[in-house]
Amino acid sequence: MHPGLRVRTSDGVELYVAEYGSGPLTVVLLHGWTLDHRLWRKQTADLAARFGRRARILAVDLRGHGRSGSSELSDTNLFRLADDVHAVLTQCAPDGPVVLVGHSLGGMAMLEFAHRYPAEFQRQVTGVALVSTTAEGHTHTSYGLAPWLGRFVREVETRGAALLALGGPLRVHKAVMPALLPAVRWLVFGDRVEVEALRLTIAMIGSASLRSIGGFRPSVGRMNRLDALSLLATVPVRVLVGNRDRLTPVKCTEAIVAALPHARLQVFDSCGHMLPLECPDAVTDALAELISEAAPKGRKSGRTRS
């Protein structure tokens, strides 16, 4: 078990941060909703091996997820996650360049951080990767269904999340997660999935508190940080998405790449929402390329299909 670092947030929540390697450049990995730092286990191992002493990798457990502490329901939102990202940088990487990598909720937290702390973002951040995420909340979330049915399911899901949030820090759902395996497989994975990746996803969801599973949902739905994209205009940007993503579909990238024409968009065929687990080597390659660009070198642009 990785010993990790501990970060104390502005409201007293203790965050767990797994640390790999050392170097002048810090890479901060932010996982998605209901997941934890284990989402990046392939990337942390491979990036640490590739970059050695040139880069330090930090994989954060967001509040209420994994091995981090839970907060009050009123503090379970994107605003607090932005403050938490600020706390991680202030306590773990106060100086030197930083590359921010956000998957799903983690990408939203990153954009909220840029919005709330623009001076700090521009001072330290030299590269950004937005993985299976959006700048427009649940605007384009239809679960791969017909638009009218997607809107109905979204309403039911949002109301159900409010009930789950009443469960507080409890994780009683962990016992029933194996029974939900087929639903999880359909919702967050694409055409192919390895059994190990599916089991890890079930384990991560089971480790998230009910308050986090339900509490973040309203904030995610309302999120709109298109304004924050302008702060990414001067740094290398990677936008990664699967063409079978039912939660943050390819349409979510349109506004992002429109605002950031220099961003490199990669669409992964047959993949869903869990790109770091579904195509780990390709994600690692994309991040490695970004890290190399984020070091003081020239910057490239373009779009590719993987």
TrEMBL record:
Q: Which UniProt keywords apply?
A: Hydrolase
Q: Does the keyword Hydrolase apply?
A: yes
Outline the extent of the AB hydrolase-1 domain.
27-286
State the InterPro entries in the record. AB_hydrolase_1, AB_hydrolase_fold, AB_hydrolase_sf, Epox_hydrolase-like
Q: Which domain of life is it from?
A: Bacteria
Q: Which GO terms describe its molecular function?
A: hydrolase activity
- The molecule here is called Alpha/beta hydrolase
